[in-house]
Please model this.
Amino acid sequence: MTQNTSNFEILKSIVESRRTLKPEAMNGKQIPADIFEQVLGLADWAPTHGRTEPWRFFVYTGESLKAFCATHAEMYKVNTSEENFNPATFENILHKGDLASHLVIAAMKRGTNPKIPAIEEIASSSASIENVLLGAAAQGISAMWNTGGMAHKAALKAYLHLEEEDHILGLIYFGFSDEPVKEGKRNTPISEKVKYL
Ligand SMILES: Cc1cc2nc3c(=O)[nH]c(=O)nc-3n(C[C@H](O)[C@H](O)[C@H](O)COP(=O)(O)O)c2cc1C
Model:
């Protein structure tokens, strides 16, 4: 097997075996800081049109993770009308990080180069997130990209001092799990999503 073939096989197995695991199924073990930093560092190698490097990450762990979850739940309460407020949702947000090691809020910070449309900066930031998810998978770290709670609400953006034109792309929970990695599932075969012309 040539070097390239073997690199491809390794990458393919990581890509195909990466699975979303909800933070409630994590085991509370802490990811060593140096490992986490290396995994998150992979974000910086996403493709970036015009080198705007629009990905930004807000990292919570330990006490700051607990504090953020409390703030997040409170933010939900304060910004939800009485008739729409659901106590179960409040509890879910409050305890979502209980068994996670790290929570990363991933955002796209809009650059100033007018030649680069926002969609390209969202695309680039999303690619940076996938780099991180794959790095986590390769390290045996479970993760969930979540857009529940206040992820798409202005209040969370303001809390993070992001501007209107920036976007929060998700809250990503990381941790270890004792569960075996689940089998992947796709509804439509790749052949139906690709056209060779
Ligand atoms: C932009 C984005 C937002 C997501 N938000 C949620 C979410 O709010 N809740 C959730 O359960 N999963 C969320 N997911 C994860 C998907 O449910 C998951 O990727 C999908 O079920 C496929 O499973 P896999 O990641 O294991 O291949 C999100 C994924 C993406 C890309």
User: Anything to note?
Assistant: Residues 118-138 form the longest helix (21 residues). Residues 19-20, 145-148, 170, 184 surround flavin mononucleotide (CB under 6 Å).
